[in-house]
Design goal:
This is Integral membrane protein. The chain is mainly alpha-helical. The protein has helices at 5-35, 40-45, 48-63, 72-97. It starts with a helix and ends in an 8-residue tail after the last helix.
Length: 105
């Protein structure tokens, strides 16, 4: 059963808002990662642009007419990349805040 017209338009509108929001977040995360490069905070911030870039491309895949409404396989792969980058960033923030030192980069 197809969605009513208003629901389809609302879904597309929300996906566009999500696309714009993640694009802005990716820009700011990239600026922060570059600004703090070479520091402990920079090491923790480095995965964040990858997170937002993957989320942006995933949302773009849901809007593209050649992919299914849920984004299909590309969305699943990109969300997997985002989750791994989030886990890495969280680990680095925890080690930074708890003052644990991890050998190597």
């Amino acid at each position: 059963m197809a969605l009513p017209t208003w629901a389809t338009h609302l879904t597309v509108a929300l996906n566009i808002v999500t696309l714009v929001a993640t694009t802005v977040a990716c820009t700011f995360a990239s600026i922060a990662a570059v600004g703090f490069r070479g520091t402990e905070w920079g090491r923790a911030l480095a995965p964040l642009p990858v997170v937002f870039a993957a989320m942006t491309v995933s949302t773009g895949a849901t809007l593209h007419p050649a992919t299914p409404a849920d984004g299909g396989q590309p969305a699943v792969v990109l969300w997997g990349v985002a989750v791994v980058a989030i886990a890495l960033s969280c680990w680095r923030f925890v080690t930074l805040v708890t003052e644990r030192r991890v050998v190597g980069r």
